[in-house]
């Protein structure tokens, strides 16, 4: 019997929702309070529901799709005609694209930390304790980081809205029908095709659309909060400076 | 991303709960989430593929299944467990926010033993008073609302918790009444009753915790008002005593 060496342990990082969750939850630290709520809603009501419930409801969507015909290929063609892209895949894409702008903020923070470390080392105060402090430092959302954060918020809202629109274009209306009529080649005439679990799918579609809407509202609220905070900070700083005081005086003299 | 992630989040909440809250969490984790993950999902695994109707009409089985099972028990319980677990995370978020504020104060204070203070803060258990009491109370109300809501939804959709062996179906395109046979009905009934009983137990525990919180708050405010009365009483006696002393003290 030939001796085979023991299999090497799988050291490559696995690409699954768990690793995605680990990456995105790392961004949590640099978010505002509303941002953290958005992240929790995303994980609990979208990602978790998708993984534990929705995926099993759509599990047999192709095998359960039956047409009233014996014509080979008709089943497959009709399924493809009515479901160009499955709801589950659309939601998975949406979740990935909507979460990734948050990584912009993480990248900006990492860049700033790198610059700070470099400056410390040049100035000669690069002790391990100071470097450790930089690693754990939490940056305020001001200046360039504010702009990065606003850009990431804009992209989040843009992707959410874009996917809601794509959804509407591909599947107008939220209702999943029990019966669809198909006459694509090679079906001999208009055949009745029956969709598997349409009511359950409608319930989950409505749920996911509603939570998407909530996420859009949270993102808009966060944007308004950040703009409001920046304006109030600007006014506070303006009052302190002599030019700002002059400006305020002229403003209130009208 | 699975039940294990939710499980790890929930066990973190355990620290800031009352004793009844810890019992509720254990019931939720062991009798509901684990049973769902390890047993119930397998029982309902072949619910659609093994649902067979006494007909050759194409599409009849699919339509009858959809008519009698608009949403599968398993999916309903998954949604219920997610919704019921989320209010507990509100409390965890508030505690984290509170501790973050205290951490800032410690870091700015410039004490010598900062690391020790931070470690003590990390392991500190906040008393359930003031704002935390209201947030906890609100989270309990939400839990009760969601539990009750989902139990009502289950009863409304299925009429009873008993799953029959066969159902009569005459929804189009079934030509006439077809007998449709459900897979593993007795096993499903047993698990449905088990999950309903665990749900009811959780509702009772939440109600008990609610009354316990209210009672504790009432006792605390009663004790505070008693202490205030005693203080006022002492203060008034002290004021009475002072003018007498002023008269007797010599004038310089």
Automatic annotation (TrEMBL), chain A:
Membrane topology term: Multi-pass membrane protein
Keyword terms of this UniProt record: Cell junction, Cell membrane, Gap junction, Membrane, Transmembrane, Transmembrane helix
Pfam families, per the entry: Connexin
Chief location of this protein within or outside the cell: other
Top-level taxon of origin: Eukaryota
InterPro entries, sorted: Connexin, Connexin_CCC, Connexin_CS, Connexin_N, Connexin_N_sf
Gene3D superfamilies: Gap junction channel protein cysteine-rich domain
Spans through the membrane: 37-54, 91-110, 144-171, 203-227
One annotated GO molecular function: gap junction channel activity
Connexin N-terminal domain span: 56-89
Biological process according to GO: cell-cell signaling
All residue ranges annotated as the Connexin cysteine-rich domain in the record: 159-226
Compartments it resides in: Cell junction, Gap junction; Cell membrane
One annotated Gene Ontology cellular component of this protein: connexin complex
Subunit structure: A connexon is composed of a hexamer of connexins.
Stated family: Belongs to the connexin family.
Protein name stated in the entry: Gap junction protein
TrEMBL record, chain B:
Location(s), subcellular: Cell junction, Gap junction; Cell membrane
Keyword Phosphoprotein assigned: no
Lineage: Eukaryota, Metazoa, Chordata, Craniata, Vertebrata
Domain Connexin N-terminal stretches: 42-75
Top-rank taxon, per record: Eukaryota
Subunit relationships: A connexon is composed of a hexamer of connexins.
Function noted in UniProt: One gap junction consists of a cluster of closely packed pairs of transmembrane channels, the connexons, through which materials of low MW diffuse from one cell to a neighboring cell.
InterPro entries, per database record: Connexin, Connexin_CCC, Connexin_CS, Connexin_N, Connexin_N_sf
SMART domains: CNX, Connexin_CCC
Protein name: Gap junction protein
Domain Connexin cysteine-rich, first and last residues per copy: 146-213
This protein's record includes keyword Transmembrane: yes
UniProt GO BP: cell-cell signaling; gap junction-mediated intercellular transport; sensory perception of sound
Membrane topology of this protein: Multi-pass membrane protein
Record PROSITE patterns: CONNEXINS_2 (PS00408)
């Amino acid at each position: 019997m030939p001796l085979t060496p023991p299999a090497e342990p799988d050291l490559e990082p696995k690409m699954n929702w768990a690793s995605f969750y680990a990456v995105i939850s790392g961004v949590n630290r640099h978010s505002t309070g509303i941002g953290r709520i958005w992240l929790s809603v995303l994980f609990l009501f979208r990602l978790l529901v998708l993984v534990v419930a929705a995926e099993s409801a759509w599990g047999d969507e192709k095998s359960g799709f039956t047409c009233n015909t014996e014509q080979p290929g008709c089943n497959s063609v009709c399924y493809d005609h009515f479901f160009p892209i499955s709801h589950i895949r659309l939601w998975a894409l949406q979740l990935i694209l909507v979460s990734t702008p948050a990584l912009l903020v993480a990248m900006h923070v990492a860049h700033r930390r790198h610059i700070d470390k470099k400056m410390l080392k040049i100035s000669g105060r690069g002790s391990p304790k100071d470097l450790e402090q930089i690693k754990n430092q939490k940056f305020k959302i001001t200046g360039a980081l504010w702009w990065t954060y606003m850009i990431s918020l804009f992209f989040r809202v843009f992707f959410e809205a874009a996917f809601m629109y794509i959804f509407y274009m591909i599947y107008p209306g939220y209702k999943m029908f029990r019966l669809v009529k198909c006459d694509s080649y090679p079906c001999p005439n208009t055949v009745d095709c029956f969709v598997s679990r349409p009511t359950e799918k409608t319930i989950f579609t409505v749920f996911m659309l509603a939570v998407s809407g909530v996420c859009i509202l949270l993102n808009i609220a966060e944007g308004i909060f950040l703009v409001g905070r920046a304006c109030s900070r600007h006014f506070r700083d303006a009052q302190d400076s002599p030019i700002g005081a002059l400006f305020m005086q002229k403003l209130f003299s009208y | 991303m699975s039940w294990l992630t939710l499980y790890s989040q929930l066990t973190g909440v355990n620290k800031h709960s009352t004793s009844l809250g810890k019992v509720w969490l254990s019931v939720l984790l062991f009798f509901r989430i684990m049973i769902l993950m390890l047993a119930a999902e397998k029982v309902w695994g072949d619910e659609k593929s093994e649902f067979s109707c006494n007909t050759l009409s194409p599409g009849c089985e699919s339509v009858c299944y959809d008519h009698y099972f608009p949403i599968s028990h398993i999916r309903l319980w998954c949604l219920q467990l997610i919704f019921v677990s989320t209010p507990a995370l509100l409390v965890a978020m508030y505690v984290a926010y509170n501790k973050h504020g205290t951490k800032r104060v410690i870091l700015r204070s410039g004490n010598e033993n900062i690391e020790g203070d931070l470690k003590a803060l990390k392991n500190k258990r906040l008393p359930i008073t003031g704002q935390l009491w209201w947030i906890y109370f609100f989270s309990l109300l939400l839990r009760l609302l969601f539990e009750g809501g989902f139990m009502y939804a289950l009863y409304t959709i299925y009429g009873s918790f008993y799953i029959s062996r066969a159902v009569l179906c005459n929804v189009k395109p079934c030509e006439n009444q077809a007998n449709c046979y459900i897979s593993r009905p007795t096993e499903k009934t047993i698990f449905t009753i088990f999950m309903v009983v665990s749900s009811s137990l959780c509702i009772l525990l939440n109600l008990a915790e609610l009354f316990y919180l209210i009672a504790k708050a009432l006792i605390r405010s009663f004790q505070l008002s008693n202490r205030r009365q005693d203080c006022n009483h002492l203060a008034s006696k002290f004021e009475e005593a002072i003018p007498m002393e002023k008269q007797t003290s010599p004038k310089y």
